[in-house]
Amino acid sequence: MIRKLVLLLITVSFFCIGFTPADGQTVYTLERALDVAGNQSPDIIQSLLNLERFKESLNAQRAGLKSKFQLNVTPIEYENSRNFNSTYSTWINTESTTSSGTFSIVQPILPTDATVSLNNNAAWRKNYSDFSKTETKSYSNNLYLNIQQPLFTYNKRKMELRELELDYEKANLNYSMQRLNLEKNVSQYFYNLFLAQKNLTIAEDELEKTQKSYEIIENKVSAGLAAKEQFYQAELNLMNAKSGLENRKVDRENIQDDFKLYVGIPFSEEAIALADISVNPVVIDVDFAVRQALSARMELRQRQIDIENSQFDLIRTQALNEFKGDVNLSLGLMGDNPKAANVYETPSTSPKVSISFNIPIYDWGEKKARVKAQQAVVKSSELNLGTEQKQIELNIRKIHRSLKNQLNQIDIARQNEKNAQLTYEINLERYRNGDLTSMDLKLYQNQLSEKKMSLLQAQIDYKQGLLNMKIQTLYDFENQRAIVPTSESQVKQ
């Protein structure tokens, strides 16, 4: 309730200083700009598409671990061939017609990387040979269980699944970081627009003051109380003030277009930035900030993922020219009969077992060299993690010092603005009394405008510094709460 009341008061004040929205104008608070940018930003959309790609790849890999049901059907296969029979030293013509189908259930076994399949082959066959002058017709069915198990090697399925899980996690981290980076960039564009609006207001105030001083000297010259060169100088000051106002208008329009482009607002829309730049000093414990960052920063998790991926590559490299084996076990029940119902009247079993090994002899040091190269990659990834941790701590300490300094700069800028205002008012009175030239008064007027902008800039710098600290630590020190990065699931909800 208090926040809404404060925002209402700010809005009223904002309108009172000359920014009352006209038709076609839209007032944007920082929160509203962030909401619009979150839905329109090309960077966010691209990141979401990348996230969707890894998500679906992971879903496909998990689906591949479930039982697969396959049916292969050969409705008709006809063959007429002529072969030489060496036993009888004669050529034999054979003709065969076959219709068959195989139904299979294939189940990958993730813990051991084995593959178990249950297969059933049903067929009908008609054969004719001109040697025996007979035609045979029969039905057959072969039901068998097959097991294939790799030996002495790494589990490829488990590693591929883990890699896809890490890719998806990394894509989610990238998306969350894009959201935080978006907040930082939108804030920068937003405050740039706000400063441009303030610059324009100050330029309008300068023109108004210059117009009054011009009228004062014009009346004095007309009454013969001041030299004509004073009038010429006042006229020159007035022209410069008008030129300065036009320049500020152009600057605001350009900055406004930059803001629209990044946020995703149509160029035809007139955007006005409404900002609360009041400063409430926030106490920050730098040691707590560092601990929070080291426990929550997503870049560190990304470096850990890089280490894990490099270790997977090392495992693959170590598997080059490795000693490994395969076990294949097949056990089935085969039957055939001219009548389909009696196909298993006299069944026969068909067991099959095979064990094979791949035994490397000599590879001229290829595997050893490749393993050393990949070990260097793993160490490099570990070094990057340590470097990232030190860089995070360094950045937080710098931001903390900068925030302290910015509070001092705000106090100084506030006092400077007060002194510049008093100085201008004193010298304006001197100008009215003829004790000061137009050029001198213009210097004091410029000084006042400069100090106003310096105060605004110092306040915005502090706001930006707090935002930067929040992004660096994933902790909101203003509201004393941890930041939970936006994930894909939160967006879809």
TrEMBL record:
Residues 154-220 form a coiled coil. It comes from Williamwhitmania taraxaci. Belongs to the outer membrane factor (OMF) (TC 1.B.17) family. Pfam families: OEP. InterPro entries: OMP_efflux, TolC-like. It comes from the Bacteria. It is found in: Cell outer membrane. Keywords: Cell outer membrane, Coiled coil, Membrane, Signal, Transmembrane, Transmembrane beta strand, Transport. GO terms for molecular function: efflux transmembrane transporter activity; porin activity. The keyword Transport applies. One of its GO terms (cellular component) is efflux pump complex. Transmembrane segments: none annotated. Its main location: membrane. This is Outer membrane protein TolC. Residues 1-24 form the signal peptide. The lineage of its organism: Bacteria, Pseudomonadati, Bacteroidota, Bacteroidia, Bacteroidales.
